[in-house]
Amino acid sequence: MASRTALVTLATLATLPAPAAPARAAATPRVLPPAGVTQPRVVSADPVDVTPHVLDGIVTAFALVGHTVVVGGQFTAVREAGGGEELPRANIFAFDLRTGRVLPDFAPDLDGPVSALAPGPGGTVYAGGSFTTPVRALIRLRVRDGSPVESFYAPVYGGDVSSLVRLGDRLYVGGDFARVGRSPRTALARVDAATGEVDPAFTVTPGDGPGGAAAIYSMAAVRDRLVVDGSFRTLDGLRRPQLGVIDLTAGRVADWHTEAYAANCKPDFPSYLRGLDLSPDGRYFVVVTTGGPAPRTAKLCDSAARFETYARGERIRPTWVNLTGGDSLYSVAVTGAAVYVGGHQRWLDNPLGSDSAGRGAVSRPGIGAINPGTGRALAWNPTRERGIGVKAFLSVKKGLLVGSDTTELGHEYHARVGMFPAT
Question: Where does the record locate the signal sequence feature (predicted)?
């Protein structure tokens, strides 16, 4: 089998920035607990029939708590797949994964969009976003009835929450805020999962990004690594353009630095990373971007790219890159069998395209799957109505949940929420 460093295809090799100095060889990491759900095969291209419909707006986040799927976004009403009455829901609702039944008692009144969700202990869920009531931007809710867990209190000020990751008794919070509770924190914080108290020992601070004030867009974690992307040039003063890895054991920025996202894309996108996910074993992660077409250049605009989590050194290069040829990717889910990507793309395998299908491009409207080893598109091609794009994936044992702003998935009506079953 070819080595990981030899997996970049000739078509994409020209898009990668040449390193100024060789990176040090990565040490073999110890065996880690799973970062996510492993799926041994690619999911079916035929969506299940039971997922409820979101009747307006957009879905941007999922969390699984037991057998309950919590859905967040910006919307006002939902309806079960079998029909029935329109159910008012203020930017968050929940349904049973097995039956699709909307939970009648989970109906929190959040007055702004929900951008991030994470499962909590004891049948609870954390929700983050730009709402202001009943608590500013971050709340913990009981799934059984939607009531706030009053013992958890971590109001966020000076901005919003865009990403949440829970690891055991700690909750990592990312966004564009300036303070959590009474503690100054720029865009990134760690709080006690039970109480919301800010951890004084975790102070990793993103510096301002190309678009202005620092912001964290996406995060993913295993026990000893937290991967973050967003609008920043530095982490704790160390150069980390838009992407960085934090060593959670040491509590500091890891010896992991790439210049892959230092180059500018179109002026409309001063920062352009939009999503990331770790492999189930935590050994690699995949980043997706927007940015505008940039064929035959060293830019990773409108792309998916794999990086090795435990690589070390300067100017680390992606293992592979898959370019859309000019369309944004917003979400990614890595399951072991596949790397699922979603946005409003028309193609994958398109390094020579510029809002066009270049040589070798394959049609993958709005959703596609990539081979984790080779970086080439898999045959899986259910299609979806493109719209703005897929803003949320969640891989679960039963399949792959998809959240977006459109109503057609796999050639069927599935309004803003759908699931491809595991095969």
Answer: 1-20
For residue 316, pLDDT over 60 is answered with yes
Q: In the prediction, which pLDDT does 282 show?
A: 96
Nearest to 209 by CA among 176, 160, 165, 185: 176
Which residue(s) pair with 412 in the sheet?
A: 409
CA distances from 147 to 90, 152, 245 (A): 14, 12, 35
Q: Which amino acid is at 228?
A: V
Backbone angles phi, psi at 403, to 5 degrees: -120, 135
Sheet holding 124-129, edge to edge: 114-120, 124-129, 138-142
Q: Which residues of 294-309 are buried (b: 16+ CB within 10 A; e: fewer)?
A: bbeeebbbbbbbbbbb
Q: What pLDDT does residue 293 have? A: 82
Each residue's pLDDT tens digit, 192-241: 999 999 999 999 999 999 878 999 999 999 989 999 999 999 999 999 99
Tally of CB atoms within 10 A around 408: 18
Q: What's the DSSP call for residue 310? A: T
114 contacts 141 by C-beta, under 8 angstroms = no
71 by DSSP, 3-state: which?
strand
Burial 38-71 (b: 16+ CB within 10 A, else e): ebeebbbbebbebbbbbbeebbbbbbbbeebbbb
Is the pLDDT at 18 greater than 80, yes or no? no
- Per cent of the chain over pLDDT 90 is 88
Q: What is the pLDDT of residue 318?
A: 98
263 CB neighbour count, 10 Å cutoff: 16
Q: How far is CA 226 from CA 171, 252, 278, 288, 291, in A?
A: 12, 10, 10, 17, 24
Alpha-carbon Rg for the chain in angstroms: 20
* pLDDT (tens digit per residue) in 302-311: 999 999 999 9
Computed from CA positions of residues 347, 317, 308, 274, in that sequence, does the dihedral angle turn out positive or negative?
A: negative
Q: Is 181 exposed, middle or buried (0-12, 13-18, 19+ CB in 10 A)?
A: middle
Distance CA 77, CA 96 (A): 17
For residue 57, CA distances in Å to 14, 76, 368 come to 39, 8, 23
Closest to 214 measured CA to CA, from 199, 244, 235: 235
Q: Is the pLDDT assigned to residue 167 strictly greater than 80?
A: yes
Name residue 8's amino acid: V
